[in-house]
Amino acid sequence: MSLLQVTGLTARYGDFQALFGVDLTLDAGEAIAIIGANGAGKTTLMRSISGVLRNAPEMIRLNGAPIGALPPDAVVAQGVAMVPEGRRLFASLSVEENLLIGAHGRKDAGYWTLQTVYDLFPILKEKRHVPGVSLSGGQQQMVAIGRALMSNPRVLLCDEISLGLAPVVIRDVYAALPRIRDAGAAVVIVEQDIGQALKVADRVYCMMEGRITLSGRPEDLSRAAIHDAYFGVSA
Amino acid sequence: MMWVDTVVQGILLGGLYALFAAGLSLVFGIMRLVNLAHGDLIVLAAYVILLVVSVLGINPFLAAAIAMPVMFAFGWLLQRVVLNRVLGEDILPPLLVTFGLSIVVQNVLLEGFTADSQRIGAGSLETASVAIGPLTLGVMPLLTFASAIAVIVGLNQLFYRTALGRAFRAVSDDPVTASLMGIKPASVFATATGIAMVVVTIAALYLGMRSNFDPTIGPARLIYAFEAVIIGGLGSLWGTLAGGIVIGVAQTVGAAINPEWQILSGHVAFLIVLLIRPRGLFPRSHD
Amino acid sequence: MSTIVDTRTTASRIAGVCAVLLLAAAIVAPVFVGRGVIQDLFFILTMLTLAQFWNLLAGYGGLVSVGQHAFVGIGAYTLFGAGLLLGLDPVAALLLCGVVAVVIAVPTAFFAFRLQGAYFAIGTWVVAEVVRLSVAQWQALGGGSGTSLPPTARDFAGTAWVARVLDVRDAAARDIVTYWLALALAVATCAGVYALLRSKRGLALAAVRDNVAAAQAVGVDAQRMKWLVFLIAAFGTGIAGGLIYLQKGRISPDAAFSVTDWTAFVIFIVVIGGIGTIEGPIIGVLVFFALQSLLADYGSTYLIVLGALGVVIMLFAPRGLWGLFAARTGIHLFPVRRRLRRTVPRNTQPPGETHG
């Protein structure tokens, strides 16, 4: 049984249908990447899994239990944490308070604490008393990741964590990934940068216009197949 | 000398208005809800205290301590059952629902307690005074002012030193992201309104001990509270105290010139501040 | 294939015919019904006028004012001032009521528009308090305890003629004349608001209400629309206030600036009937009158019921009774939505649904 299983997921905003029957699995300890152009439905998929958008219960299962209809706070309590697109730090909270708020719904202790997050991103310890939103983009992204880790999730959803960051900063952010996986979290990475996604993920799903158009291990996918799945087959 | 006395009385009166305003400011700060029934809820709390005093025959301060959890529960339920349903982008539903609530609360109190003026008896405390230098100050106004400062210090501690306060600020910044952190905005809002009702109870205690009250005086208290919040600048509790003091001093000075001008002078002071500092005396930098 | 823009519906044409018949009946009503009915009708018509203007403000302009009683009181005091101090004929003074209300509305708007969103509401309330407290200082008009219109000032234009033609006492004749004025005012208000909403300005207003930023992006000056609506509402509310107190004949600051009578009731009428529709206030005022007839003897219980009804409707049917009805039947008596009607031949295939 997969840790996270998405089955036939549909989503719509009013008249606009954003997802058409998406299927996806994530095994314990695995890292998968979801790639696709703008508007492919990646963020809608993340919002559905995290509970911001409600679905039919059985469309999303965690360890077999239906979580599709749970509100976001209940989804976090089940062990699915999200690093939202655009980081979305709380403007009136300091760096440390932003991290602490991530532990709000946590019931039992785990690997991730303020101390271990500061070990992962030492710069945050230095800046712990300044407002989170005053940091640089890369540092803010570290706060957002650390904040999600503070709930000790079984599944970490990362939505566009490299967006708007310089390549050298992206490298620093992604350098944290192995340690996050070692600590026990399975990871879903949403990326527009195909190269980055293929480098870090065990498996890749490619989305286009609300559907999964391709999936598999990076080494099994040809450049041409990815190109077609990403941009559509040129007729 | 008379003018110094008038101004000092005004400053102390400002403490009462800051108490009226603190609950309004708290609720607005966290959920952007302007509760038009706020004044009527203060009057409701005063009647709850009065009821406890007359049934149990105890000291008003003790009665207020009993009324606090009752009002907390009332606020929590009100938010949970009614107000959470109308929060959102559209400002119309919350305004109209709280306006309806204001009318309902006023008239329920009229049914239950008639239109007669009431007062919460505080015994010798009502007339006690202390001499500070050349001034003679009433113990009750001093106690009111001290309570206002205590409430503001307490709320600031709650906001900046506790996990609950962190959740308040997070939800205020961004409720959707806060829910991704495991926070339930609906229950945070309910707790916030519950706490606002505890503050309202403290305000009601002094309202009821210092002057007569009847079921119809709520809207005027709402207006004083609102003026204090706007003069102070949204989101700053110390600013709200300053706003309360501006209204209080304007009222006592106005009354010293002509007793009929007391209330009017407070409103005029508000309009002047609005004219020259539209964002209040101590505006918050962001938001 | 071409399209034409149409705002008429079959229901609106039937309603138009009914309205003309109803209006004719209302004009001749004083010949057939007693003075009590005329007074009730006067009450309904003036409340409808106030409700229609508040609906324009809040439902269409997004300006939730809880201080409209300021303009009722200003209108009332202008009427008394003009009658008692200037010796103007009260009927002629009604227009002045509207003008003075607009003059006061300018500084009111100047202050209140500085307050954002919900705080605008309380800001209007503060201004109403300031006006009430100031008027209470006006000793020539009775100060805090108020005054009456002397009989000489109440024999206004038309009453003698009505008394002679309909063979009624002077007091009844005054009621009939004020009733006709109220009828004219209510009809002019409904028609005027309808015309405004169907005009180009009405379209701009709807755009501002739905999305200020988007409206500004297409060149609608949101601030100017807010001013326009606020001043129009003040003008009409001022005239209605003058008319109401012309009929009452006695004034005091607490009554003329009553937040319950002139703001709370008006808000409940609009909310119960359906905010943001022209039909809403009409339905609302009828429900309100029925409730008042049934429950007015119970005093505060009546207000509890009214307040609770307003809350319940806002929670469960925010479009009010008319909104519920229109959603079920699709009937609009005063359609202001523009409907695109395709002028295509019958045999043409309808275009398939497309998604963006």
Summary?
By secondary structure, chain B is mostly helical. Chain B has eleven helices and two strands; from the N terminus they run H-H-H-H-E-E-H-H-H-H-H-H-H.
Please give the largest β-sheet of chain A. Answer: 6 strands, mixed
Order of helices and strands of chain A: EEEHEEHEHHHHEHHEHEEH
Number of strands of chain C: 4
Distance between the termini of chain C: 23 Å
State the separation between the terminal residues of chain A, measured CA to CA. 39 Å
Structural class of chain A: alpha/beta
Keywords (chain A): Amino-acid transport, ATP-binding, Nucleotide-binding, Transport
Organism (chain A): Loktanella fryxellensis
GO molecular function, one term (chain A): branched-chain amino acid transmembrane transporter activity
GO biological process, one term (chain A): L-amino acid transport
Could you explain the architecture of this structure?
The complex is a heterotrimer of chains A (235), B (287) and C (356). Chain A is built from 10 helices and 10 strands. Chain A has helices at residues 42-50, 72-77, 95-102, 114-120, 122-126, 137-149, 167-174, 177-182, 194-200, 223-231; strands spanning 4-13, 16-26, 31-36, 60-62, 65-66, 80-83, 155-159, 186-191, 203-208, 211-216. A 6-stranded mixed sheet of chain A has the order 6-7-8-3-9-10, sandwiched between helices. Chain A has a 4-stranded antiparallel sheet with strand order 2-1-4-5, covered by helices on one side. Chain A has a single domain (4-231), classed as Rossmann fold. In chain A, helix 3 packs parallel to helix 6. Chain A is α/β, with parallel strands linked by helices. Chain B is mostly helical. Chain B is 74% helix and 3% strand. Chain B contains 11 helices and 2 strands; from the N terminus they run H-H-H-H-E-E-H-H-H-H-H-H-H. Chain B has helices spanning 2-31, 38-56, 60-82, 92-113, 139-161, 163-173, 175-180, 185-210, 218-232, 237-257, 262-276, and strands at residues 129-132, 135-138. Chain B has a two-stranded antiparallel ribbon. Chain B starts with a helix and ends in an 11-residue tail after the last helix. The relative contact order of chain B is 0.21. With 356 residues, chain C is mainly alpha-helical. Chain C has helices spanning 10-32, 35-60, 69-84, 90-112, 117-135, 151-154, 159-166, 170-198, 200-210, 212-217, 222-248, 253-256, 259-273, 279-295, 300-316, 320-329; strands spanning 2-6, 147-148, 250-251, 339-343. In chain C, helix 2 (35-60) runs parallel beside helix 8, helix 2 (35-60) crosses helix 14 and helix 8 runs antiparallel to helix 11 (222-248). Residues 343-356 of chain C have low confidence and may be disordered. The chains are: A alpha/beta (235), B mainly alpha (287), C mainly alpha (356). Chains in contact: A-B, B-C. Chain B: Belongs to the binding-protein-dependent transport system permease family. LivHM subfamily.
